[in-house]
């Protein structure tokens, strides 16, 4: 969050690729299936100062900017998150500044606000040319308010009878400038629904995307017949006046997203839950909930909204050992493991299915730039979110994924990365090498008939390339760690580490 460079690293911590940009993140970044980078940036001149945002860009693999769009004015500003859709459009979370007159007309208690009041909207953009976009759809919080403070206003009614609407008077008065603080947006193409996370409501919402913009501003229309009203909400029943503080299950959460088909807990929602516990003894969790939804995308509207408990949850064995006061996220992997980003500490770690930490990496880029390995970043290395992409991700097709060395300076770590063990590829071919550690010679054992082998050092430099051989002389190699990459004729890649020790 404090640098303009985006890094793609392997799980040994070596740089595979990087993109240098003009703006600090504002805040999310995604590697698209086509190999391009969708990223956001901070408009330094934006009047919306509490969180950065304002620029949305698409950057090519070679670093060139394909599209750069400014969504930042005196009255609105993109912030936190964007979502790339299957049709090539982009969903963006956007602040809307409301005047005092607008807030009063909406039935908000005038004692609870002063100069600024920021609401939210979701804008769908279709990129045009190199710096323009067409707004093809919008949904606004402001169109779906209810209140029981001022009976002279059109949206007056009983809040507890309309959980599909948003209480105009809910919310901590100290946070009214940034009323909802939306921090993530996700899209479900199966149901044509959008998932939102409101940090200051301690709640996630689902809305219908199948509506027109006109229907999204109303209470009718769309696939589900409810216009832009909430289809589902979860995390804090107090927002619609059901239950008490004891019923609250989300606490300043981030990164709410659906788990996609083909993964464990597919169709459920994963959430980084930041702030459990009392001040001074706080801890975080990663939670998965199974929403009460049928095969057509309709939700059970039993109140308070179900589920009553999580489907899966992780906290540290000593809960306070895992705590991120803000930002952060998590991701389910194909293996059933989970990657977690403790954004406040710039720390990424992977849990196996037994919830044991099997991999860990600390971001070595801080406010002052790249850090020396082993130096405490002192919380200056925060990261909004990290994302794991598997080796067969389409973005990598035809790309150079060799290691380019580590990010941090003065590497004095002699530990061997234990990522690479015997690998079985998609064709069930097994590759092994021995002896390891080695002295004079390495033997390759593989079921492939035609292949190319490269030896690469820890800085990413190719030292040797040979074809269709089972023995490689290592007499010229100095003591240390190296990688062997075996490329099959069919395009499969196997990478293994080995040690030279004399």
Folded structure, characterized:
By secondary structure, this protein is mainly beta. The chain has helices at about 100-105, 215, and strands at about 5-10, 15-20, 25-30, 35-40, 55-60, 65-70, 75-85, 90-95, 120-130, 130-140, 145, 165, 180-190, 195-200, 205-210, 230-235, 255-260, 270-275, 285-290, 310-315, 330, 340, 345-350, 355-360, 365, 370, 425, 430-435, 440-445, 450-455, 460-465, 470-475, 480-490, 495-500. The longest helix is centred in the first third of the chain and has 6 residues, at about 100-105. It is elongated. Mean pLDDT is about 90; it is low at about 420-430.
Quick synopsis:
The chain has 502 residues and is mostly beta strands. It is elongated and about 90 Å long. It has two helices and 34 strands.
């Amino acid at each position: 969050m404090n640098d303009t460079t985006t890094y793609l690293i392997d799980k040994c911590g070596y740089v595979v690729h990087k993109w240098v940009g003009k703006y600090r993140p504002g805040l999310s970044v995604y590697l698209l299936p086509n190999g391009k980078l969708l990223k956001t940036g901070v408009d330094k001149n934006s009047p919306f100062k509490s969180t950065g945002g304002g620029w949305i860009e698409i950057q090519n693999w070679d670093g060139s900017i394909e599209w750069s769009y400014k969504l930042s004015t005196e009255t609105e500003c993109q912030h936190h998150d964007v979502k790339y859709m299957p049709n090539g459009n982009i969903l963006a979370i956007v602040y809307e500044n409301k005047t005092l007159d607008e807030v009063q007309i909406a039935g908000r208690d005038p004692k609870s606000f002063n100069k600024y009041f920021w609401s939210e909207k979701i804008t769908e953009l279709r990129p045009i040319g190199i710096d323009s976009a067409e707004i093809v759809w919008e949904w606004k919080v402001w169109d779906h308010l209810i209140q029981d403070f001022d009976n002279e206003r059109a949206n007056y009614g009983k809040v507890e009878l309309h959980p599909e609407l948003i209480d105009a008077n809910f919310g901590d008065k100290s946070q009214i400038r940034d009323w909802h603080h939306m921090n993530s947006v996700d899209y479900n193409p199966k149901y044509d629904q959008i998932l939102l996370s409101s940090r200051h409501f301690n709640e996630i919402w689902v809305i219908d995307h199948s509506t027109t913009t006109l229907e999204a501003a109303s209470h009718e229309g769309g696939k589900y017949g409810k216009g832009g009203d909430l289809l589902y909400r979860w995390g804090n029943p107090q927002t619609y006046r059901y239950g008490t503080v004891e019923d609250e299950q989300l606490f300043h959460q981030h990164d709410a997203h659906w788990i996609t088909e083909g993964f464990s807990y597919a169709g459920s929602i994963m959430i980084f839950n930041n702030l459990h516990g009392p001040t001074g003894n706080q801890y975080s969790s990663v939670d998965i909930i199974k929403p009460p939804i049928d095969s057509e995308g309709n939700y059970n509207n039993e109140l308070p909204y179900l589920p009553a408990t999580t489907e899966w949850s992780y906290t540290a064995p000593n809960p306070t050992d895992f705590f991120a006061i803000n930002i952060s996220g998590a991701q389910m992997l194909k293996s059933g493991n989970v990657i977690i980003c403790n954004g406040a500490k710039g720390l990424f770690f992977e849990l196996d299915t037994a919830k044991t930490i099997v991999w860990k990496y600390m971001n070595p880029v801080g406010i002052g730039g790249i850090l020396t390995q082993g130096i405490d970043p002192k919380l200056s290395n925060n990261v909004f979110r990290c994302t794991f992409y598997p080796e067969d991700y389409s973005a990598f097709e035809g790309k150079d994924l060799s290691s380019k060395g580590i990010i941090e300076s003065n590497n004095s770590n002699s530990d061997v990365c234990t990522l690479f063990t015997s690998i079985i590829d998609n064709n069930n071919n097994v590759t092994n090498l021995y002896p390891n550690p080695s002295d004079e010679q390495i033997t390759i054992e593989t079921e492939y008939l035609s292949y190319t082998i490269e030896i690469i050092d820890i800085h990413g430099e190719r030292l040797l390339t040979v074809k269709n051989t089972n023995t490689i002389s290592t007499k010229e190699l100095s003591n240390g760690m190296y990688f062997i990459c075996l490329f099959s004729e069919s395009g499969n890649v196997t990478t293994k580490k080995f040690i030279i020790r004399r």
